[in-house]
Sequence to fold (848 residues):
Amino acid sequence: MNYKIINGKLLVDEGHQIVIKEGDLYVRDKILSFIAPASEENFEVIDAKNKLIMPGLINMHSHAYMTLMRNYADDVEFSKWLFEGVMPVEDRLPAQAAYWSSLLAFSEMIRTGTTCFVDMHMYHRQSPLAAREAGMRGYIGRGLVGASLFEEGNPRFREALAEKEEFESDTLQFILSPHAIYSCGPGLLKEVAEQSRELGLLKQTHLSESITEVENCLKEHGKTPVEYLADLGFLDEQTILAHCVQMQGDDLDIIRNSGATIVTNPASNAKLGNGFAQAAEMVEKGINLCIGTDGAASNNTLNMFREMTLLSLIQKGIHHDPVSLPAETVVRAATVNAAKALGMKDRLGVIKEGAAADLIFLDLDTPSMFPANNILSSLCYSAGGSEVSTVMIDGKLVMRNRELLTIDMEKVYYEVNKAAETCL
Amino acid sequence: MNYKIINGKLLVDEGHQIVIKEGDLYVRDKILSFIAPASEENFEVIDAKNKLIMPGLINMHSHAYMTLMRNYADDVEFSKWLFEGVMPVEDRLPAQAAYWSSLLAFSEMIRTGTTCFVDMHMYHRQSPLAAREAGMRGYIGRGLVGASLFEEGNPRFREALAEKEEFESDTLQFILSPHAIYSCGPGLLKEVAEQSRELGLLKQTHLSESITEVENCLKEHGKTPVEYLADLGFLDEQTILAHCVQMQGDDLDIIRNSGATIVTNPASNAKLGNGFAQAAEMVEKGINLCIGTDGAASNNTLNMFREMTLLSLIQKGIHHDPVSLPAETVVRAATVNAAKALGMKDRLGVIKEGAAADLIFLDLDTPSMFPANNILSSLCYSAGGSEVSTVMIDGKLVMRNRELLTIDMEKVYYEVNKAAETCL
Fold:
């Protein structure tokens, strides 16, 4: 289906600044265009009066399968959360439950304006299966652990490649996902770096999330986690580093020089007691900063609007500086910076001639957006996600006027509830 | 109208813990009861299947008239925000605009589950007029400044008393509201303390919001703002102190011993670069801690659910402690603690035999609340406010199934827009 979107206000990133423009926007063969086609015969008209149309948000770090564990293990110490809360559930959870849990995640993402997610999952085939069903754009990785990708008895890398083989499409891409330096040996991390180059795949890992991780790494290797990864040849422009809360010494410079991206997860980092990332310093250094929600077991929602607010407010509070991480910088982190990290500059995260049609429509006539004194500010400081009324991914409507078109919520609620009752 | 609410889950604070109960809840003559009346003839049945019914949230610090300035002066230094942003607008704003701006505030409060607010306003009659129209429960104060309540040419205290005379009712109460120690002389502050005792009125003020305020007070009086107010005889159980971000020395002990309440405003404090209040320490000391949004010019929303999340996450992050300010403590701060501060213990902020019927209904079948592993956690960590579907204040429905029943939003948008175009 082709669309002609009329009467809307368009959020357009012109590189030096983000501006609001008016005018018709066409979606032709899943691609955005400002140029009227020769014939508009096959174009459905969408009237976007009183709507802001902007690029869909990109959630750069998530674990969709964990959504079942939302609000399950809160207000407890980190080790209790992980070893008595999350991990025993993961052992009990049937793969099918991860599928329904992922669909629940995508329903929440779509309803709050996320059109693309980066995932690290633990259940073969379930995340891409659910993402394909929901019509989400995803960069999906099977979590890898152990000493080597090619160990006997460790099927994860094989499964990761099989998923790529089965599911790779215009909207689903795959990303090598070693879990962390404490769950992966140096051999495996080197192999991932090699495979990344050979296969032309992105790679992601959790890094410097907690003080304990950094202390242990210093003790064991005499290096910070960042130095350790750098020395293994892991850091380059194809690398996405989730968290980076505990940065020491030259860590930020090493990351900046490598061209790697940092994904900050303010809610999760605060909630688990890991603290606040130096996000403003990362931006000042010229590091490509993106935003993620992490999983629902540590956030406890997958709402990028809430995450944008948190990111900016926390930085302003830490630095006693109301100018720190302004709205425009934060909106860029959730859109164009993410596209850059994914190798999709000018194709994702923007409304631009030739970009993919990943769009969200927000109601401007809703209290939190009103009056529209500064729309960029409202996206960062007052929007809560529920202003999103219509969502298009890769040219396909997945929500229209708050009605989800690709996900049967009654079925999702039924199945997630059943799994929660059995496994939690 | 009397109501019988069936099939809902009720959030009941039993003092030692908050629990979820099932059972019918009656609203008879604006009062809650679990006891079936002799005849249910005049009771309308509300089916609350898949809903959580809880006491309405109490926003303990707001400036409803400022909602017009939402997203108006962001990402600028504090003095620029105040002297070039907010204050010139206040000078230009006609009183009528404050009325519409307040109605916009109440529409947002109701939609996000706030049933009662404490206000400090600047436009004679407009806040109570709008609150009465919207059916909000309010504790409203005309901002007081100057050397004395009884100065010639300063009509504010007279106006405050006239408002009380005109508007006082079951739902609208009045609160003496000297603006701050830097805008009120010591004589006025003493007079307010006397009038508070004589008239039996609560009093509120902004206190220790910024480092500059504390430094200036130390320079001028050789005391912290808290010590200064204590020495003026201002602090007692009738006192509500907004902000208290910059606490020094014995400040917290002085407040605890006085019985005064602190209202923390995490979004506003962070956003204006004032920092993070020591909220966890306040609770540990036994201070009655409540939550406010402050005005929309510094938040930039009036959503108590967002404020609860921020409060808890920021404290966990600061203290590197996932156990800091747990969900139950935060929910109490937004309900029963507020009722206590307002002298309405057991009558507001609780579902209890004989309490006022200020209730909110939340959809449990919505992604952010699902699965319902821990409802208290969801209120603090995953709810965003849009889960609120129905709101009752003083036994009257003001929103039903997301439809506002007391506020004509089209008119509000039209009038606020007109005022914004003229004054901003």
About this structure: DSSP finds 15 helices and 19 strands in chain B. The domain at 57-341 of chain B is CATH 3.20.20.140 (TIM Barrel).
